[in-house]
Amino acid sequence: MSETATPYTTSPEAIQASLSALLGERAQSIDIERGEVTLVVAAADYLAVMQTLRDAPQTRFEQLIDLCGMDYSTYGDGRWEGSRFAVVVHLLSVSLNHRVRVRVFCPEDDFPVVASVSELWASANWYEREAFDLYGIVFEGHNDLRRILTDYGFIGHPFRKDFPLSGHVEMRYDAERLRVVYEPVTIEPREITPRVIREDNYGGLH
């Protein structure tokens, strides 16, 4: 790099304006919070918008660096009135040195489905499998959508807010039958609320 060259940087406000001009009505909202830009799009527009974000010269998001599921069923102490499940994606443009968070809500709570972006970014493959495994979100068009973290015979999706903390079944090795067996869980469900300390200068910190 020459002495006069400077890294290309873009302010959140400039990214917000660029996305608004590029996407138009396909952007349901574009907000800035703590210096980060969050774009919300409808499930019907999700795949097309993601391809635009990857290919358009003013965005050029070459890398998908994270994708996860979300369950909003108890968000805001139960005051949430929107769709229950969402997918959140973090994109990075190496060439333009900027980032964006994309959120898409699944239209149906009973059978949450959004398009897969694994054909656009190979890194989405395992992330989408993880969101399917933990939240039950189906990624339409994914060519190998199966569990990735839980056991083959696992029942349910453990990151859903209504999944019991102790699970539904427990596994053990049966010495008489010489194999692993699954049985209804015997642990009594309970909740432990951590103690929150709000004393000033707690622990000598100033």
Question: Could you characterize what this model shows?
Answer:
The protein is an alpha/beta fold and 206 residues long. The protein has a domain at 12-150: NADH:ubiquinone oxidoreductase Nqo5 subunit (Beta Polymerase, domain 2), CATH 3.30.460.80. It contains three helices and nine strands. A five-stranded mixed sheet has the order 1-2-5-4-3. The radius of gyration is 22 Å and the shape is globular.
Tell me briefly what this model is.
With 206 residues, this protein is α/β, with parallel strands linked by helices. It contains 3 helices and 9 strands.
Secondary structure elements and their pairing?
Elements: H1 12-23, E1 27-33, E2 36-41, H2 46-55, E3 63-71, E4 85-93, E5 98-105, E6 113-115, H3 124-135, E7 138-140, E8 169-174, E9 179-184
Parallel strand pairs: 2-5, 6-7
Antiparallel strand pairs: 1-2, 3-4, 4-5, 8-9
